[in-house]
Amino acid sequence: MSGCLTNKDSGLRVSSVLRRAIKEFGPKHLVDEKEDTCWNSDQGSPQWIEVNLDSLSNIEEIQIRFQGGFAGKDCCIQMTDENNANHHIMDFYPEDVNSLQISF
């Protein structure tokens, strides 16, 4: 899995963390491959995840898993260019299930 974000949290930012409990629910849990941990956002919309790849990268797929009842409904992928302009790449609509979902 060349270039996989697994166990890399330095380039991850999130919109919020439940009760600001970073150790329990922070962004590092997005990529730790443990089924008993997760990023847990605070309430409200929108919520977001930012990944800084530090260099030009070819994204082949995005894998996401939700806890039942807490799935994102309307999700999108955006990129920010070198001028900090945001560009909409695609929308995706994950299912509200616990199984691994793959986009792209």
UniProtKB/TrEMBL annotation:
Highest taxon above the source species: Eukaryota
Signal peptide limits: none
UniProt domain F5/8 type C: residue ranges: 1-64
SUPFAM superfamilies from the UniProt entry: Galactose-binding domain-like (SSF49785)
Entry-linked Gene3D superfamilies: Galactose-binding domain-like (2.60.120.260)
Protein's name according to its UniProt entry: F5/8 type C domain-containing protein
Organism taxonomic ancestry: Eukaryota, Metazoa, Spiralia, Lophotrochozoa, Mollusca
